[in-house]
Amino acid sequence: MLKQFILIVALLISAARADALEYTDVYYNPAESGWGVFLVQSDTTQFLAFFIYGTDNKPTWYTAQLAQDVAGNYNGQLYATTGTYFGLPWNPAQLTVAAVGTVSFAPTDAYRATVTYALTGGEPITKTVQRQTLTAYKLAGNYSGSVSGTQSGCADPGLNDAQFRGRYNLAASQTGDTAAAMTITFVDPENNGVVCTIQGPLTHFGRIYKMANAQLSCKEPGATTAETTAVAIDSLHPTGQGIEFRLSGPTGGGCTSSLRFAAVLNN
Asked: Based on the structure, what is the number of domains in the chain?
């Protein structure tokens, strides 16, 4: 049981990947409010629509379709599009689409990115952007889900696990858009009865939340005390059916772990 307890603690403090994998959102620079980028992602392809301004300070319509490279960044052509005045019936003959430059979207973490674009013959322009928050999301509820992850580098090699799997029940509560708490009760045969609680402040970025300084406590069945560790929770967000998130951070025994949670809401 002690080994299982250490394993669960280590996995719950898992290392999230630097990329968010799914970057769909609205992006802007808080210091330059008034322009931005709509981004929709499908697998490793992104479609971007810029709401920016031309040399005459009037709105200018640019789009881009980007593909992921081996470094996890996205690159592609920038297009200028014109067409029929929106108050009239659409006339396909008036549509023009011209390649006018290049664009790259380079994530710096799950929440921010560097966008670089250049018109043909012009100097590159680099902007730092982040997800733009619109409204608070409801996270509170009771869920059932599965978890998978890896653990490596442990001082005790017996704790390394390249294919951890588990099932759990989750009870989540929140205080507005500022804090959240989650209780995870494992129900799979190997980890049955292990209970972990996570609580901490929320930071909201667009469609996802971050808990940079959460407190994690895990306790195995029959234990009277629980080990508490500082953790980070990334990409916490509701889905159409439930909730998803990642946990990150080092753990005892030299272990480094990676874990992802996905759960459906219990009606």
From this structure: 2
Range of the domain at 161: 2-19+135-265
Give residue-wise pLDDT tens across range 104-126: 999 999 999 999 999 888 889 99
Does residue 144 share a domain with residue 121? no
Provide the CATH number for the domain around residue 244: 2.40.160
Same domain assignment for residues 46 and 175: no
Q: What does R_g of the chain's alpha carbons equal in angstroms? A: 22
Residue type, 134: L
Q: Are residues 126 and 139 in the same domain?
A: no
Are residues 185 and 104 part of one domain? no
Task: Decide if 14 contacts 255 (C-beta within 8 A).
Answer: no
Tens of pLDDT, residue by residue over 179-210, are 999 999 999 998 899 888 999 999 999 999 99
